[in-house]
Write a sequence for this structure.
């Protein structure tokens, strides 16, 4: 049975997070609502918000709790509602959110918007557990000139040029499961082998195209089938890399359309953003909630 996704619309967002205090209260509840007693005086938990300050105080002993301490929101000159709204925008966008877009939507400077976007993107970094069952592996090249694409791929010894024009990205996706994507220096087997060993269970069935770096997978002990894209073969029984191809095209569309270009140095954080969304495509809980939870998990 497929569970229905819980909706979280902009209307609901505005009703729930009417101002900074409402956002602060949400953080307060998330962090402390499990407490039955005051951590200081042990009286029954009874805290109220201190007027004009971002803290709560115990009704009995006066001990203070600072819900924002240690979070990305702490000591920020950006209002909490703006932070929440920025996270909401990231959570509802399929193509990512540029700093320019945040600048417009939040009415803050570009520098400030850039900093917020950078912090939010860190939330997308996660450890995905090892992939099993049927796993597609594929590589792609992001950025640079389209004309150099094949040159980069077919002449792996020519790495200097490859790095200058495009960044290599390796991906593995479990059918109906999670994706793991890494920006790499090149896609020769010395990189492919440890990537596969570290991320894919040895009992998995691995599907790739004919790229020769994948020839070593059988010797590693994997059951390996491939399609020959060079010969126009894209699907052979259940052997194909269509899920990854779909992910690559979404990634490239977004990078070209929303971000225009991404420097190789930051590419992994952008790639993480799309992997994070992909890995939650069937979540019932709205992405916004999982992102706010992630902010608090980092404490
Ligand atoms: Zn107390």
């Amino acid at each position: 049975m497929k569970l229905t996704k819980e909706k979280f619309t902009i209307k609901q967002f505005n009703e729930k997070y009417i101002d900074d205090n409402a956002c602060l209260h949400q953080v307060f509840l998330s962090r402390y609502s499990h407490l039955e007693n005051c951590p200081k005086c042990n009286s029954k938990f009874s805290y109220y918000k201190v007027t004009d300050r971002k803290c709560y105080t115990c009704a009995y002993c006066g001990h203070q709790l600072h819900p924002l301490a240690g979070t990305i929101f702490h000591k920020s000159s950006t209002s909490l509602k703006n932070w929440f709204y920025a996270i909401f925008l990231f959570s509802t966008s399929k193509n990512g959110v540029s700093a320019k877009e945040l600048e417009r939507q939040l009415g803050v400077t570009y520098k400030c918007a850039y900093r917020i976007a950078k912090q939010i993107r860190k939330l997308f970094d996660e450890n995905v557990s090892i992939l099993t069952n049927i796993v597609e592996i594929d590589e792609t090249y992001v950025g640079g000139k389209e004309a150099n694409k094949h040159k980069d791929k077919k002449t792996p010894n020519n790495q200097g040029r490859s790095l200058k024009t495009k960044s290599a990205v390796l991906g593995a996706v479990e059918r109906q499961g999670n994706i793991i994507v890494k920006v790499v220096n090149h896609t020769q087997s010395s990189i492919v082998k440890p990537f596969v060993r570290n991320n894919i269970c040895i009992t998995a069935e691995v599907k790739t195209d004919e790229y020769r770096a994948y020839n070593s997978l059988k010797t590693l002990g994997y059951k390996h089938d491939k399609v020959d894209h060079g010969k126009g073969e894209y699907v052979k029984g259940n052997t194909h890399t269509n899920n990854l191809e779909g992910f690559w095209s979404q990634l490239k569309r977004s990078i070209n359309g929303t971000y225009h270009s991404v420097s190789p140095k930051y590419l992994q954080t952008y790639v993480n953003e799309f992997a994070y969304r992909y890995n939650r495509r069937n979540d019932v809980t709205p992405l916004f909630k999982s992102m706010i939870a992630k902010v608090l998990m980092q404490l």
